[in-house]
Amino acid sequence: MLIAGFSCVDFSSLNNKRKTLDGSGESGGTFWGILGYAKRYRPRIVVLENVRTAPWGKIAEAWGGIDYFACHAEVDTKAYYLPQTRERGYMLCVDRQRMREHGLEETAMADWVKILSQFKRPASSPAGMFLMDPDDRRLEQIENDMTARIASHTVYNWERYQVRHQNYRMNMGLGHRRPFTRSQEDGSSQMPDFTWQPWLRSMPERVWDTLDANFLRKLVEGYDMNHKERCIELSQGIDREVDTRAYGIVGCITPSGIPYLTIRGGPLCGLESLSLQGLPLDRLILARETQAELQQLAGNAMSSTVVGAAILSALIVGHKVLDKGSQQPRPKKEVPRHKRFELCHDHELVSGSINVDEATDVTISDIQAQAASSARYCIS
């Protein structure tokens, strides 16, 4: 079985310069590489992942050209346990030659879409449950590292983009004030006390105005965003990221995103992004990676709960095309040796009676004497 995801940059709805599958782009190049591998080595089952807007029809035709059956399903991560809006497309490809050898029909393979849907369970834990505690000592170091990384980047002039912000403010009736950042024309600002002030000051003025506009937008809706758990994607335009998600749900985690947590006053760090992808941080050794590298890893990763459901569904419908393993199944009643409980032969069990319903009279002086005899004293 081959599990693969190819580059989505040319198919993403956030890209204004998209390319086709046949174009000389990164997405097409990585896809044709996977197809070439499958054509030569003929994996029995292939599970593909990419964005929902990928050309899945043409992708299915390409797999049909090398004698593979293909069917496609659209999923959203927040429908599979995790509180993240991540709309993706998955495709199951099965070698038709192996299907013919085992007498499997394409209609049976197409049930993969229905079985995958049956694994759904809407996220019931809010995103805050996946975040570090506010008093976690690692957050201070993470804040310093992220501030130093951003401050070292070039800050571009945003005059052309400023017109877009002004038009949006005027159309939404938000006015021209900056109540959140209190930024001035000379580049100074006065961020709220609870925020990651060095990190916010290192951000470009476009981000400051995005925060101010979101603050005003939430006031119009009737609440102060500083006291509600919201996640705003600051890397996107003010008219693209309108923050209409349900409470407790974050937006799609991307490699170069800037997800801002309103109750923290700072960004979502790389470790938290991995956690929101369903990766077990306690089982990963993450010591030398920077927060930017962890963010890229999380943004390019598949949500573990979704890809896990896709793999299980593929095994349910197509397990017959796989080669049988050589390991013999263990009898159900047999217990592994390392889990067996055996009595030591050097000791014998002694029977005795315990009367739990009998009470013994104990005086306070006896208790004090026993406490004194068991106390630990300093050795001078």
Structure, explained:
The chain has helices at about 25-40, 55-65, 95-100, 105-120, 140-150, 160-170, 195-200, 205-220, 270-275, 290-300, 305-320, 365-375; strands at about 1-5, 45-50, 70-75, 85-95, 230-235, 260, 265. By secondary structure, the chain is of the alpha+beta class. The chain has two domains: about 1-125 and about 305-320, Vaccinia Virus protein VP39 (Rossmann fold), CATH 3.40.50.150; about 135-270, no CATH class. A four-stranded mixed sheet has the order 1-2-4-3, sandwiched between helices. Strands 5-6-7 form a three-stranded antiparallel sheet. Strand 6 and strand 7 (about 265) form a beta hairpin. The protein is flat.
